[in-house]
Design brief:
The chain has about 450 residues and is an alpha/beta fold. About 35% of the residues lie in helices and about 15% in strands. Strands 10-15-9-16-17-18 form a six-stranded mixed beta sheet, with helices on one face.
């Protein structure tokens, strides 16, 4: 008896076959990795220029192109070395399931017009399992991935058809997967309300060490939300630092405590002001409701800093869908006194101050992104890189010794609180609504050990 030939195909093959049929591109075939059912396509602007996709983006009345969002973004010191750097990135998985590191990659480019290649590249990312992405889900939403990639290329001024490996990895293995996860969290949040209810914006907390690229990540996510017509607001714990006068008073009240001499550690923030701001932001649920979001000027008073003049604060308008709240110490929990004393006796006062932070910050956060590092000393290297970049750009930057002194005031808190944060999650968080991302010394997401 003859054996029937199996017609079963893999999920990614089925997805690409469906994608061929859906967009009627069979007249542009070319072989894909010698697979007879899979075609590659020269998309360029064909799909993204369709009216379907333009319904999801902000457009300018005089042009069909995406309108860039006004920003004050600067590459120097922002953790964007991936834009130019080809030195390190995580490539495909090895046979034993671990990820191999590719050093000194050639500066070759990758043609993202091949949807099949991009599909496989997305599915090979280290965050795929964490955010529950299956090949089927990627295939069903590949048009959105293309759109998001195009938008981020526009934001970072990259050629979307000629991305280097690190650029492609940063967009499709990091920023876009996190955006997809945030999008799912918003949908979950909205499902808890009835039609007609005033739905408060979802607050997503981003807890990550200084210099690891969290500000750039939040910047990219905010851009994607705005270009997909969801109103968002971004705030940082930096925005809630004490005024210069308040910092001077804190310094006087804690003589000899280097951890409280300058802004940074618990105790150097205006917690009532942060509560007032967060409460007001979460009430922006209707059209026409507006408020100005505070900002901090780190350059004031010769670098000691002060709250920026209110006339310079950006304005946000409701109804907000999401608030992106980032900070290096978000989610830190106070610990027994003997634990912090063993790390640094000066940390005891900081630890007592930290007890009030849950009610001021963490309780407002509905979902969390926790960016994890293996060694807190990475912070020193990242800060040094940022200051060197600033000096090379002709801007004022700290000397190497000043960087060492600056970072030394944060390391005790990292050493004391990161282990608990990583083991237990942020204070008061729901484990099912925490996305933990391990990154390496080059700020690239990796598979957790």
């Amino acid at each position: 008896m003859a054996v029937a030939t199996s017609s079963v195909i893999s999920p990614w093959q089925a997805t690409l076959q469906h994608y061929n049929n859906r967009f009627y591109l069979k007249d542009h075939p070319s072989p894909c990795h010698s697979n007879p059912i899979c075609n590659t396509f020269n998309f360029k602007r064909r799909i993204l220029s369709s009216s379907k996709f333009n319904d999801h983006v902000v457009t300018d009345s005089s042009s069909s192109k995406l309108s860039p969002i006004e920003t004050h973004f600067s590459i120097s010191g922002c953790g964007c070395s991936w834009i130019q750097d080809n030195s390190m990135v995580h490539d495909s998985a090895t046979s034993n399931g671990t990820w191999k590191r590719c050093s000194a990659l050639p500066a070759k480019t990758v043609d993202v017009s091949s949807v099949s290649d991009l599909f496989e590249f997305i599915c090979s990312g280290p965050l795929v399992d964490k955010i529950g992405i299956t090949p089927e889900k990627v295939g069903q939403s590949i048009d959105k991935w293309l759109l998001y990639g195009s938008q981020l290329c526009r934001l970072f001024q990259l050629n979307e058809l000629k991305l280097t490996i690190p650029q492609k990895a940063r967009l499709y293995h990091y920023y876009i997967p996190v955006f997809v996860w945030c999008d799912d969290q918003i949908a979950l949040h909205n499902s808890n309300f009835q039609d007609g209810d005033d739905v408060p914006p979802l607050v997503i907390g981003f807890s990550a060490p200084q210099g690891c690229g969290k500000t750039t990540l939040v910047f990219a996510l905010d851009y994607l939300f705005k270009t997909t017509k969801r109103k968002s607001a971004t705030i940082s714990i930096d925005d809630f630092y004490l005024t210069a006068q308040g910092q001077a008073k804190l310094r006087e009240e804690n003589p000899g405590n280097a951890l409280l001499e300058y802004r940074g550690n618990a105790g150097s923030h205006d917690l009532p002001f942060s509560v007032e701001t967060l409460e007001a932001l979460t009430k922006l649920t209707k059209d026409g409701m507006k408020m100005k979001v505070p900002r901090y000027d780190k350059s004031a008073y010769s670098g000691r800093g002060d709250r920026a003049d209110a006339t310079t604060w950006p304005e946000v308008e409701g109804p907000l869908k999401v608030i992106l709240f980032e900070g290096w110490m978000l989610g830190f929990k106070s610990l027994p006194a003997e634990v912090v004393k063993a790390v640094d006796p000066q940390l005891e006062t900081v630890n007592k101050n930290l007890e009030a932070y849950y009610d001021a910050w963490d309780k407002y956060i509905n979902a969390w992104v926790v960016i994890k590092i293996k060694d807190p000393s990475y912070v020193y290297r990242w800060r040094l890189q940022a200051e060197i970049a600033m000096r090379q750009a002709g801007k004022a930057g700290m000397s190497d010794d000043e960087v060492n002194d600056f970072v030394s005031r944060y390391l005790p808190a990292y050493k004391a609180y990161l282990p608990t944060l990583y083991a237990e999650g942020p204070s008061g968080s729901d484990p099912d609504r925490v996305l933990a991302i391990d990154i390496d010394e080059e700020r690239n997401p990796i598979l957790a050990n």
